[in-house]
Amino acid sequence: MRRRVVVVCALAAMVCARASSAQDERWISLMQLADVHDHAGNYKQAEHLYREAVRMAEGFQDHRYPEALDGLANVLNETGRYPDAERLYIKALSLMEALKGKENADYAVMSVNLGMHYSETGQNRKAEKLIREAIACFGRVAPADDLRVAQARNALSVILIGLKQYAEAETALLQALEVFRKKPEPGNGRLAVSLANLGAVRRYQGRLQESAELFSQAIAVVDEELSDTHPLLLRELNNLALVEMTLGHHDAAEAAFRRAVVVAERRNLTTHPTCGKLLLNYAEFERKIGNKHEAKSLAAQAKMVLADSARANGVGMTVDASAFRSRR
């Protein structure tokens, strides 16, 4: 789950002024409410609303149908249904290209969404190509401090971290953070995600104390702007726990792992692959501090979650227990 990095193509803002029918207004209302639930981590409600928006928009010969598909794909991706999400992302992008071509911000936004999906599913080279193309497009059609450009740079940083290109990832994140701080929009998690991603960079650079501080800042932002049980916290708490574990701060690591498990339970995410990886890391922590029985139990839970997810998504189980990155 990525704590969504980019928004659906301007949602309904660009059609609000010209909406002339009850049907138009209903679609706008559905998309806006779905987006609110999506950002709040209420994925079941968001999915229901996006599906209704998709049904309404099927007969529209404009951007509304691909936008609704893209929104639904984001929710499916957040809840670990990757094959279905990928199918909808590709369909939405193809429809948007047919409607408007590739040289526009809407197409670029959808490219970032699909690119982040590719990153989440381990297709980093495909992800990198799409997102770099999107950033180049934004450079031609949007101002440098556009929030969508910053979102795309944050997305690129995730891929660069996966490719171990930490210096470029750091540059992209610092550029994104400058925009998010210049144009704050509390309630969407973008600042928290970028802070957490920079924390990941610092961790891989060996700057562990800075990394822990950045993860703590990201968690504080989520707590303040979203919720103390928001799904974004699953990764950020896991990341903090890993760094605290490396620093030898066992009590802090234990507290972060336990809180992450509570978030997963309260948000009904205990079968999500991210929770499986969290449990695997928690098991390794318990093993290292000598709690062998607890470690064995957590590892068994983790393997069950990851195996079930792999079967559901038609993929093999590939786990990098050390690399939790908000892609959010």
Descriptive account of the structure:
The protein has 328 residues and is mainly α. Among the domains are: 1-100, Serine Threonine Protein Phosphatase 5, Tetratricopeptide repeat (Alpha Horseshoe); 212-328, Alpha Horseshoe (Serine Threonine Protein Phosphatase 5, Tetratricopeptide repeat), CATH 1.25.40. 74% of the residues lie in helices and 0% in strands. It has helices at residues 13-16, 22-40, 43-57, 64-78, 82-100, 105-120, 124-141, 147-162, 166-182, 190-204, 208-225, 232-247, 250-266, 273-288, 292-313. Mean pLDDT is 88; it is low at 3-19 and 315-328.
Which helices and strands appear, and what pairs or packs with what?
Layout (H helix, E strand, L loop, with lengths): L12 H4 L5 H19 L2 H15 L6 H15 L3 H19 L4 H16 L3 H18 L5 H16 L3 H17 L7 H15 L3 H18 L6 H16 L2 H17 L6 H16 L3 H22 L15
Helix pairs in contact: 2-3, 2-4, 3-4, 4-5, 5-6, 6-7, 6-8, 7-8, 8-9, 8-10, 9-10, 10-11, 10-12, 11-12, 12-13, 12-14, 13-14, 14-15
